[in-house]
Design goal:
The complex is a heterodimer. By secondary structure, chain A is an all-alpha fold. Helices cover 67% and strands 2% of the residues of chain A. Chain A has a two-stranded antiparallel ribbon with strand order 1-2. Chain A is globular and about 55 Å long. In chain A, 58% of the residues are buried. By secondary structure, chain B is an alpha+beta fold. Chain B is built from two helices and six strands; from the N terminus they run E-H-E-E-E-E-H-E. In chain B, strand 3 and strand 4 form a beta hairpin. The longest helix of chain B has 12 residues. The termini of chain B are close together. The mean pLDDT of chain B is 93. Classes of the chains: A mainly alpha, B alpha+beta. At the A-B interface, helix 8 and helix 9 of A face strand 3 and strand 4 of B.
Chain lengths: 410, 112
């Protein structure tokens, strides 16, 4: 084992965990003041619940061997349940770092992925329904997809698609689940009638900064080594965030006359999302292309929710689903064998990867949508997904948590 | 005694306070309020969605003065809070029956 790699992955695991509080602030600032704690809590509870589901069965379903249908490995087995037989050495995975560290690093991804969905259900979803949803979702939807892409499953092995740090597993997966929940939940009271505005953009901008910071662990850590590939992923990640933020700001300035802080923060996140599948496979100049695409296309994608009458409250679909698709698809064009060592994309002479990427995106969308929609329907029919109208008017902080984010005096 | 209530632009608060102190006013209260008048509202844009915000932030100041000082205080607020643009605000004068200084129990003009 390599102590440099081990040190970097320990650090990266902490960086990735720190993204969830960052996400909580990013979302928390965008809701009304009466719902700020409920929003923070929907993110933080993922750190509680998904840690438990991950240690119990999530990890083994994703990385514990192969259960196959024909030649295709579709899920792990239960050999590593409770991570009992994961040791301090590297006997299972044979990597340059301890097997137990892989449990930790992957756990932080499993935590933030369902937390991403929280922005779509803001200001109206029950806390209990949310807890049930992310607990089941992290096992049934997330763990198998992590297996397909990173655990020896068929998307990597048979379809031949690439996903460096989670374009499919994290962003498309969460974005599609967000869409499914929105369709079952319905819009907030007063949506499109009242001015439902962000209550504290400084929180949001701070949260975006923390996300940007933590994303270095997410992407550069996904090199699973402290080496040149990690450095390349570090640079492409930063470049895509910077270009995404700048592009969004320019497009917004041209369209509406004024650049906004929320626009800059949104563009940074869109750029980070889009570079995620590609960070270790493309050059910094390709990251510029990905940043421009994410910063402009996600900006226009936001408007679609009004056409479909989907109250995607904090634009999870437009940023994570659309941004994830942009990154995963552009990777098919921009991948370079000299960087990632896993083949070239169309622009470097190999058209096959575009098709593989496209196919993997379709598979991820169908899988996540069908299961997420079904799960949302089941929860809605049993314990109910949504708070009562009175609770929604009162605000979720008081109605669900009996506390307030801001008190008038003292 | 009279209660003078003035709705003014927030950026005028310090100036008005200083001017009133000069005229001998012993104290005042101020708070943030939102309202609308001829100025109307304004537009805010969040992620490309434009919202018409009908209320404008203003500051409400309240000062209780002796009858003889009302004209001077009102004139001072008028003079310092005016920019000449719509949205400069309004001043109202109301009769006050009694005033109590809580610490000492003084009443009427002694409590001012």
């Amino acid at each position: 084992m390599d102590s440099g790699t081990t040190a970097w992955l320990l650090t990266s695991s902490a960086l990735v965990l720190f993204m969830t509080p960052g996400l909580a602030l990013f979302y928390g600032g965008m809701v009304r003041g009466k719902n700020v704690l409920a929003m923070l809590m929907k993110n933080y509870i993922a750190m509680g619940i998904v840690t438990i589901t991950w240690i119990a069965v999530g990890f083994t379903l994703a990385f514990g061997g192969n259960s196959t249908i024909g030649d295709w490995s579709v899920v792990g087995n239960l050999d590593l349940w409770g991570v009992r037989d994961v040791g301090l050495g590297n006997e299972i995975f044979g990597a340059d770092y301890p097997d137990m560290l892989f449990v930790a690093f992957q756990m932080m991804f499993a935590i933030i992925t369902p937390a991403l969905i929280a922005g779509a259900v803001a200001e109206r979803m029950k806390f209990t329904a949310w807890v049930v949803f992310i607990a089941v979702w992290s096992i049934v939807v997330y763990a198998p997809m992590a297996h397909w892409v990173w655990g020896g499953g068929f998307i990597a092995e048979e379809v031949g698609a690439l996903d460096f740090a989670g374009g499919l597993v994290v962003h498309i997966n969460a974005g599609v689940a967000a869409l499914a929940l929105i369709m079952v939940l319905g819009p907030r009271l007063g949506w499109r009638r009242d001015a439902i505005r962000p209550h504290s953009l400084p929180l949001t901008v701070l949260g975006a900064g923390i996300l940007w910071f933590g994303w270095f662990g997410f992407n550069a850590g996904s090199a699973l080594a402290a080496d040149g590939a990690a450095a390349n992923a570090f640079v492409t990640t930063h470049v895509a965030a910077a270009v995404g933020a700048t592009t969004w700001t320019i497009v917004e300035g041209m369209r509406h006359g004024k650049p906004t802080t929320l626009g800059f923060a949104s563009g940074a996140v869109a750029g980070l999302v889009a570079i995620t599948p590609a960070a270790g496979f493309v050059s910094p100049l390709s990251a510029v292309v990905i940043g421009i695409a994410a910063g402009s296309i996600c900006f226009y994608a936001l408007q679609l929710k009004f056409r479909f009458n989907f109250d995607d409250s904090l634009d999870v679909v437009a940023v994570h689903l659309v941004g994830g698709i942009i990154g995963a698809l552009l990777l098919g064009f921009l991948a370079e064998d000299r960087i990632g060592g896993l083949g070239d994309g169309l622009f470097f002479g190999e058209p096959q990867l575009v098709w593989n990427q496209f196919l993997s995106i379709v598979i991820a969308i169908v899988w996540s949508f069908v299961l997420s929609y079904g799960l949302a329907r089941i929860i809605d029919a049993t314990i109910g997904l949504r708070v009562s109208e009175d609770e929604e008017r009162q605000g979720l902080d008081l109605a669900l948590h009996e506390e307030q984010g801001y008190v008038l005096a003292d | 005694m009279k209660l003078v209530i003035a709705y003014i632009n927030p950026f005028k608060l310090d100036e008005v306070r200083d001017a009133l102190k000069e005229t001998g006013v012993g104290g005042l209260s101020a708070g943030n309020v939102q309202g609308f008048g001829r100025q109307g509202g304004h537009t805010e844009t969040y992620r490309g969605a434009e919202y018409e915000v009908q209320f404008v932030p203003k500051v409400r100041i309240e000062v209780i003065v002796d009858d003889g000082d009302v004209a001077a205080v009102v004139a001072k607020i008028e003079e310092t809070a005016r920019t000449g643009q719509t949205g400069d605000g309004k001043i109202a004068v109301l009769p006050v029956e009694d005033v109590v200084r809580i610490r000492t129990g003084e009443r009427g003009t002694d409590a001012l």
